[in-house]
Write a structure and sequence with these properties.
single chain; alpha/beta; D-Maltodextrin-Binding Protein, domain 2; ten-stranded mixed beta sheet
C-alpha cells in the first residue's frame, strides 16, 4: 500500500496540472455557440452580440450556429452530444429549461446534461395585436375575445416557446378562449400578425417592439409582474386587467456537462465582463432586453424555479402540444 498511494497521488497531481494547463490555454481554437432557434430571433441576436465581444477578447472566433426545430429541442440535443471540452456552448432560453420538459418527452435533462454558465438577459414579453383589431387595451382584448369565442387567434413560435403558456395563462385568468396557432419561429408568427392574418402574439420584446414603435403593431402591455424601465410607459397585463398575471423570459449560456472547472470559470468571468459593458447594456436595452449575469449556482436556482413555475402553469391551464 505504501508503494501505491504515492503513485496515485502523483497521477492525481499530473491530472490536475494537465487540467490547469488546458484551462489556461482555453480557447485555443474557434468556439461554437449553438442557438436552437431561427436566425434573426431574440436568442440569435443576443448570441451574436455576446459572441462578438468574446471574439474580440480571446482572439478566437465564436461561431454562432443556428439549429432551429422542434421548439429548440433539435439544437439542444446537438449541444448535448458535443464533447465536454468547452468548444461547443448552448445559448438557450427559458423554453428549453422551463416549458419543454412539461410539453415534450426530451432526451435531455437541463441540469443533468449541461452545466449552467450564466444568465445573460431577461425581459418580459410584449402583448401585441394587429392595428385592425378593435381592442385598444388588455380589457378591450378580453371583451373582444368574450364576444367572439374561438374566433381570436394568438400565435407563437411553437408550443415549446414561452408565448404558448403566456397565451394559455391569459385565456385561463381572463376566462376566454383565444385559439393557439403555432409557427416555426416567432418571426413567422409576427409576419402573419403584420399581414393581418393573425390577431394576437405574446412576443419577445426585441422583435415586436420596433414594429410597435412604428405603429405597424399595437402594443397593449408587457407581461412582467412590474413595469419595466425598458418601456416605462407600457402597463403590465396585471395592472391592465388580470391582477395575478406574470410571465417573464430569460436567456443563458450552458456548457456540456463535464467541462473542466477552470474553463467554466473562464467562460463565466467573460460573460459577466461582457454584460457589464455600457455599450452592451445600451444595445440590449434598445431591443427591450435587460443585460444581466450570474454565478452558475444562481443560474441553476433560476432554472429550478422556472421549471417549477411553468410546469404548474401548463398543468393548470391544460396546455399541450398542438
Amino acid at each position: 500500500m505504501r508503494l501505491v498511494w504515492p503513485a496515485v497521488a502523483a497521477s492525481m497531481l499530473a491530472c490536475g496540472t494537465l487540467q490547469a494547463a488546458v484551462s489556461d490555454s482555453y480557447p485555443s481554437k474557434p468556439v461554437r455557440m449553438i442557438v436552437p432557434w431561427n436566425p434573426g430571433g431574440t436568442s440569435d441576436t443576443i448570441a451574436r452580440i455576446l459572441g462578438q465581444k468574446m471574439t474580440e477578447t480571446w482572439g478566437q472566433q465564436v461561431v454562432i450556429d443556428t439549429r432551429a426545430g422542434a421548439s429548440g429541442i433539435i439544437g439542444t440535443e446537438i449541444a448535448m452530444r458535443a464533447p465536454s471540452d468547452g468548444y461547443t456552448l448552448l445559448h438557450a432560453n427559458m423554453s428549453q429549461w422551463a416549458t419543454n420538459p412539461s410539453l415534450y418527452k426530451t432526451s435531455y435533462d437541463t441540469l443533468r446534461d449541461f452545466d449552467p454558465v450564466s444568465v445573460v438577459a431577461s425581459a418580459p414579453q410584449l402583448l401585441v395585436v394587429h392595428p385592425g383589431v378593435a381592442a385598444k387595451s388588455v380589457r378591450g382584448l378580453i371583451q373582444l375575445a368574450k364576444a367572439k369565442p374561438g374566433e381570436i387567434n394568438f400565435g407563437s413560435g411553437g408550443a415549446g416557446t414561452l408565448a404558448y403558456p403566456a397565451g394559455e395563462l391569459f385565456n385561463s385568468l381572463a376566462r376566454v378562449s383565444m385559439v393557439h396557432v403555432p409557427y416555426k419561429g416567432t418571426i413567422l408568427a409576427l409576419t402573419d400578425l403584420l399581414g393581418g392574418r393573425l390577431q394576437v402574439v405574446f412576443s419577445d420584446m426585441p422583435i415586436a417592439l420596433p414594429h410597435a414603435r412604428t405603429g405597424k403593431l399595437r402594443a397593449l402591455a408587457v407581461t412582467s409582474a412590474k413595469r419595466t424601465p425598458l418601456v416605462p410607459d407600457m402597463p403590465t397585463v396585471a395592472e391592465a386587467g388580470l391582477p395575478s398575471y406574470a410571465v417573464e423570459n430569460s436567456w443563458g449560456v450552458f456548457a456540456r456537462k463535464g467541462v473542466a472547472a477552470g474553463i467554466l470559470d473562464k467562460l463565466n468571468a467573460e460573460i459577466v465582463r461582457v454584460h457589464a459593458l455600457p455599450d452592451v447594456r445600451e444595445r440590449y436595452a434598445s431591443f427591450g432586453l435587460e443585460a444581466t449575469s450570474s454565478t452558475p449556482q444562481q443560474f441553476a436556482a433560476i432554472i429550478r424555479a422556472d421549471a417549477d413555475k411553468y410546469s404548474r402553469i401548463i398543468k393548470a391551464t391544460g396546455a399541450k402540444v398542438n
